[in-house]
Amino acid sequence: MIALVTGASKGIGKATVSLLKREGYTVIAISRTKPDSGDENYALDVADKGKVLLFVKDIISKYKDIDVLVNNAGFGIYGSFLETSLEEEEYMVRTNLLAPIYFTKLILPRMISRRSGSIVNVVSEAAYVSSPTLLVYSATKSALASFTNGLWAEMRKYGVKVSGIYPGPVKTNFTSHPSFKDAKDSFSRFSVEPEKVARAVIKAIKTGKREIYVPSKIFLDPYFLKFSYIMQSITYRIVSKIFE
Ligand SMILES: NC(=O)c1ccc[n+]([C@@H]2O[C@H](COP(=O)([O-])OP(=O)(O)OC[C@H]3O[C@@H](n4cnc5c(N)ncnc54)[C@H](OP(=O)(O)O)[C@@H]3O)[C@@H](O)[C@H]2O)c1
To answer: Of 26, 96, 105, 147, which is the most exposed, with the fewest CB atoms less than 10 Å away?
Structure first.
């Protein structure tokens, strides 16, 4: 079984690669700096569409079928929208949102023809609660959630599992982006270990649940969002039934 994980050099991606290997997968690991965690490790900027197209073509000709795709690579830019750089924000949109679309577009057709496979997108609670100073990041995650939900509904009849993982704060290198240097450290004491998110990825692969939350240590965050969860669950069940 072959799994491909983006953003595999650190944090959630690295923890996910370890767990997938323990589950018996051969893991293709990708990030801008060549990771050391996978069975095969590649340096690739997932925001570069041309390079992603060539890379995935090569991988498919080598491995034929990818059983699991984990779209995890991503980053945030902290700061008032009045001060953040538009160029960096565009790059973030390509990394957080367009890259999962590129990889999915290229890998999905063979999953459909085999009627099996899992696509797991690492989203964020920020998809549901857009905070000042992280609003474009939140927008990328809202859009990724929307893409994931629609894909889940569309793929049900093809036997391909699609899930979104929604972590709260996690102890990773996420805040190492230079823009976080003046950020208030409000959440780190509530952060969970990246392994907890990696376990949610494995659960997603096994169950194909549309959304899996990984709450912070406060544990209450999902309850604040509960009402919208319930309404969305009902809505997506109806949408997928209509599509069938
Ligand atoms: N930490 C949190 O609190 C938290 C909460 C909710 C969701 N998330 C999400 O979880 C995912 C993983 O983040 P993390 O917390 O594990 O942060 P992290 O420790 O900074 O890891 C991010 C990974 O993505 C890679 N990456 C970033 N941009 C890339 C690009 N353009 N091309 C290829 N690889 C790229 C990084 O490697 P290189 O720098 O070498 O490329 C690194 O391997 C992200 O999508 C993030 O939005 C994080």
So the answer is: 105
